[in-house]
Amino acid sequence: xxxxxxxxxxxxxxxxxxxxxxxxxxxxxxxxxxxxxxxxxxxxxxxxxxxxxxxxxxxxxxxxxxxxxxxxxxxxxxxxxxxxxxxxxxxxxxxxxxxxxxxxxxxxxxxxxxxxxxxxxxxxxxxxxxxxxxxxxxxxxxxxxxxxxxxxxxxxx
Length: 157
Description:
This protein is of the alpha+beta class and 157 residues long. The protein has a single domain, classed as Nonspecific Lipid-transfer Protein, Chain A (2-Layer Sandwich), CATH 3.30.1050. The chain is built from eight helices and five strands; from the N terminus they run H-H-H-H-H-E-E-E-E-H-H-E-H. A hairpin with a 2-residue loop joins strand 1 and strand 2. The radius of gyration is 15 Å and the shape is globular.
């Protein structure tokens, strides 16, 4: 991000850049830039607005969901994302061949994932394997572990 991202104080430019991210490939390009670490990612998230970043990420999840991979499986996933300024909750509802993400803690989730904003971005970009993230403690999971383990395979990256 250091070479391709505008100065972290330039909020309007950061928000415009965020809107340009429409695919895991584009997110990977940002995350793979020289010098990008958790601190820089958190700085970007804070400067661009944590809710704006997460709204974009959860909105794009539906576009990159591959229904055939999920088959008849589905349910509600709660994501508790630690971002600068606090923890934000999002729901991802997977049903009827679609995945719909929205801000707020959903009722009755099948699984709850707790992770940092940098970990979420790496997961969505395909730079972090979900099982590896869980095994190393970067992702905490409660609820249906089998369902949680299958989730990453239902999205293209």
